[in-house]
C-alpha cells in the first residue's frame, strides 16, 4: 500500500516514498514531506550534478554541497545550476 504525503516540492498530495532513502533528520524531512515523483526528479538532477562537477561521494565537502543543493531544490524551490540543462516549464 502506498502512502500519500503533501509534497512540499510539488505543492500537492502525491504518493510518498516507500521508506526513508536518505539518512538523518534531512532524510526524515524528505520522507515526511516529499513525493516519490519529486524524489525521482531530484535523483536525475543529482546524477547530472555529480557528473558535471566530477563530485566524489567519498569526499565530505562534495556530499555537503550536494545535500545543500538537494534541500534547496526540494524545499526552497531553487533549481540547481547544471551546465547545458534547462528545466522544463510547468
From TrEMBL:
InterPro entries: Fe_traffick_prot_YggX, Fe_traffick_prot_YggX_sf. One of its GO terms (molecular function) is iron ion binding. Keywords: Iron. Pfam families: Iron_traffic. PANTHER family: FE(2+)-TRAFFICKING PROTEIN-RELATED. Belongs to the Fe(2+)-trafficking protein family. This is Probable Fe(2+)-trafficking protein.
Amino acid at each position: 500500500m502506498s502512502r500519500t504525503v503533501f509534497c512540499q516540492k510539488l505543492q500537492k498530495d502525491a504518493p510518498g516514498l516507500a521508506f526513508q532513502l536518505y539518512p538523518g533528520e534531512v532524510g526524515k524531512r524528505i520522507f515526511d514531506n516529499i513525493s516519490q515523483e519529486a524524489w525521482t526528479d531530484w535523483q536525475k538532477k543529482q546524477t547530472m550534478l555529480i557528473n558535471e562537477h566530477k563530485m566524489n561521494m567519498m569526499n565530505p565537502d562534495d556530499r555537503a554541497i550536494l545535500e545543500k543543493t538537494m534541500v534547496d531544490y526540494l524545499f526552497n524551490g531553487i533549481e540547481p545550476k547544471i551546465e547545458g540543462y534547462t528545466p522544463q516549464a510547468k
